[in-house]
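A quick aside before the break. I want you to see a complete sequence-to-structure record at least once, exactly as it would be stored in a machine-readable document. Don't worry about memorizing anything.
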Amino acid sequence: MTVICVIFAVIYEFAGHGVYSLRIRFLWTVPLVMLIVFLALGKINFEPYIQSLTFLRLFAASEIARNAFVGIVEVYGTTSSKAVILLIISIALAASTVVSVIYCAIKRRRTPE
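That is the input. The structure line, written in tokens, reads:
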């Protein structure tokens, strides 16, 4: 996904004749950060947190979509109310990820091994 975001940014910047958005230029950082989080979570016993992993992937996808959309809109010098909707979706998925991790941790603590 990181490679796809880099290719998208390069093609978009090339087609934009030098006009670019920082959101698009650094779009690749979102999946890279998620990869680092996945690798860090892989070091621990992540099996009870599989549900959280789904929310984390959805959050990463929504952030990529939001940043690409807002970046494209910024290049054209306009605004859109849809950016707020995408921000709300991203915040909801981030909150779902946090709640899911906390729930799984509490459930795991209560379950005797």
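Two observations worth writing down. The longest helix spans residues 82-110. The radius of gyration is 17 Å. We'll return to this after the break.
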